[in-house]
Amino acid sequence: MAHGTAAVAKVDSPRSPYVRRKTTRGNYELYSWVFMRASGVVLIVLIFGHLFVNLMVGDGVHAIDFGFVAGKWANPMWQVWDLLMLWLAMIHGTNGVRTIINDYATRDLTRGILKGLLLLAFTVVVVLGTLVIFTFDPCPPDASAELLASFCTA
User: Fold this and answer.
1) Residue 69's domain is classified under what CATH number?
2) Is the pTM of this model over 0.85?
3) Is residue 65 in a domain?
4) What's the average model confidence in pLDDT over 6-22?
């Protein structure tokens, strides 16, 4: 390239027929787009329900403590509610970040590394969050009485 000239990318004529440049994996992106819309609607219901119960009912934010969470998670409905909220939010967010990585990471290696890190973060948060929800014991057997919630028998 001579000094003062710039490399010019070849752009197809607007009237030229569309030629698919690379193969696609079926309708994955379409299903991903539909999932984002549907999960967004469900997440709005889950999140506003969560906020209403935690902030508006009873004493509001001042009542949120270990005993409040323990009491909520004693009910399987709230475990499922929080599990759905965790899983949908993580899948929704991960899918959104995956789309951003696809849009802005230009090199295949960079895109692969970023998606791998994203998948690792998703897996760690979902596994740990799910374990916390289902293995949470508000009344551990060897805890001192002053640390236990009021409904626990010491």
Assistant:
1) 1.20.1300.10
2) no
3) yes
4) 67
Q: Is residue 19 part of a domain?
A: no
Q: Is residue 14 part of a domain?
A: no
How far apart, in Å, are the Cα atoms of 114 and each of 35, 59, 102, 108, 118?
22, 43, 10, 10, 6
Could you please report the per-residue DSSP string of the chain? --TT---------TTSPP---S---TTHHHHHHHHHHHHHHHHHHHHHHHHIIIIISTTGGGG-SHHHHHHHHTSHHHHHHHHHHHHHHHHHHHHHHHHHHHHH--SHHHHHHHHHHHHHHHHHHHHHHHHHHHH--SS-TTS-GGGS-TTS--
Res 25 pLDDT > 70: no
Q: Is 102 part of a structural domain of the chain?
A: yes
Q: Are 74 and 137 in contact (CB under 8 A)?
A: no
Summarize the confidence of residues 13-29 as an average pLDDT: 70
In the chain, the number of structural domains is 1
